[in-house]
Structure formats: C-alpha cells, structure tokens
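Progress report, Aim 2. The chain analyzed during this reporting quarter is listed below.
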Amino acid sequence: MFTRFHRLFCAALIALLILPTASLAEEAVTASGLGGGLELAMGRLDWASKVVKVDWFDGGNEILAKDAYGYIYDIDTGIVVRIKRMGGHNHMDVEPATAADTEKLLEIAGGKFSWASKSVILIAGGQYVAAAINTKPHGQQTILDNNYRGQFCLHTTNSITHGSHRVNVEHMKAIERAYNWCQWKSVERQVVAFSQAITSL
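Predicted structure tokens for the chain:
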C-alpha cells in the first residue's frame, strides 16, 4: 500500500532521473496576441509533439504561401509573432504583420535586430515546423505601417541563402535546436502527467 510519502518520493525520483534540466516554468508561458483556445494551447505547449522538420525542397516552400499569414513561436521567450510571407525562393522572406508584432520580434532579438539565427516554430496551415530566423530588416516590404523597414528571413531544413546559394550552418543548427527542444518538451509533458497521476493515488 503506497503512503503519501511513497507517492511523493516516486514522483520526485522520476523528476530527478528524467527531468534534471527541465524548466517547468516554461509550461506556464502564454502566447499573448493569439487569443482563445489557441493561446491556451500555445501556453501549455500541447502542440510540441506535432513539430516536424520539413525539407525546403520537399514541401518546405509550400508550408506558407506567398501573401499568406502564419505565426512563429520563439522557443527561448515563448513569444509569438504573426507574420506575412512576402516571397522568397530559396527560403521565406517574411515581415511582421503589425507594429505590435514588430515590437515582439524586437523582444525576441534581445532589443536589437541582428543577423543571428533564432530557433522558432513556424505555425501555418495546420503544421508546426522547426525553423530558424534572423531578425535584421532588409530588402523590400509590403506592409508599410508595421514599423519594420524591410523583411527578414525564415529557413526550414536545407533551405539556402539568396546570396551564397548555400545552406547556412547556423540556421540549420537553430532548426535542430528547435526540433529537439520540442521533442524534449513532449516527453516532459508525459512525465509530468505520470508524476501527477502517481501523487493522486
């Protein structure tokens, strides 16, 4: 017969063995700006197990059509930015949908836009895709009132840059990080649920 002490001990042991570096605080992150059930789902990371890697030349280019809108979820901050795809052949050229989205993008960038790769999840067309972005505004734009002068790049697996026509290693590392992070969060959710079930016995 399990006593309450035994149940709590088992739950703690599971957490120590399987989740030594887990940050459960991330589970409480809410995706502000989405609203309704989607916001709740984003905050709970219910979608983490659905994240996939998509090769740019085998479906990646079709995830978000030109002039269509989608979202990116930054795995480091939990911030969600609504984006519009304006074009791109070797990767996606996107722009923040509104001035508020530009502010969120700036927060993701740490207060200063840069060419540094960031690990994100692209959410579009019912898909959750591991991706990478930079935040540096450059080139043309189609949205004139978003306080963002230009576009930024969004890469999926094996996409290439416009200039070098080569795969950018840092972007590919960021994509792998996004994918692996989501796999970890999916396992973490299952372990937490199991631990909660034990403690409720």
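Residues 36-185 form one domain. The chain has two domains: 4-28+187-199, 36-185. These observations will guide the mutagenesis work planned for the next reporting period.
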